[in-house]
Isocitrate/isopropylmalate dehydrogenase family protein
Amino acid sequence: MKTITVLRGDGIGPEITEAVLRILHALKLPLTFEVFDAGMNAFANCGELIPQAVHDSIKKNRVVLKAPITTPIGKGFRSVNVQLRQRYDLYANIRPAHSLPKIKTPFCDVDIVIFRENTEDLYTGEEIVISDDEVHAIKKITRHASERIIRAAFDYACAKGRHKVTCVHKANILKKSDGLFLSCFQEIAQAYPMIESEDLIVDNACMQLVMDPHRFDVMVMPNLYGDLLSDLTSGLIGGLGVLPSANIGNDYAIFEAVHGSAPDIAGQNCANPLALLLASCFMLEHIGYPKEAKRITDAIDKVLQEEKVRTKDLGGTATTTQFADAILACL
């Protein structure tokens, strides 16, 4: 029996978590779930954004399914997401942008996987106050972190039958930091002659993505660019509501929806659970249940193809519960 740590999150988090767990339970797999609050709900109850019980569960179970968590802005709190990624050395943030049936966007058949280095760059949060009028943010790039995310991208390309890996950088300006990342990419690419490799400056990569996303396959980049470009690729397939994410290290893995907690619609039973549900499929593959993951993705495709049951953001009127019911009916 495998136990999964589940973080219900804030805002719409509890609602979409309930919908996803209903679907996972229906698979009748040997899985159990330890469910916790984290974020503002947890802070209100115990004064901590991430209670110690959550860390104890993560250390024991090593696999986490996480709904959106709110971090208070401008009040001295570190991002919950960044804390978790750094504490558990979840160096590979993998965000697949894959077109879903009959979701209206300017593009079809998009299939891009972004590998985002997840532990350094500007996301270390290191800032130095020089004066009341000047602050310096530290951009940290190391060979160790760069090499392991780049190798992860190439290994994924080989394992999944992908044909190209694109490195995104700004080495024309940041010659030392992004220059190191780029040089690591060029060195490692030589060990994978069966995979085409290229590099693009980040602003050019953004333009190319919205002009012709089909030219891209697997993309790898430092932390900040990965944050920005993965949001961009989500826009190519219908938005963050359909984009799953995995944060994977050597010992731990957290699977999550990357969209926000949407407090304006919390409690209304109208949120789209697809991002978290697709993340749970990513999780099932990771722990050895690829057939069951495909059962869910096939059910999602069937529901979307029929165009009868969709939440408001997908052009329908269905509730979160009704959408989950429709997927359960197709399993």
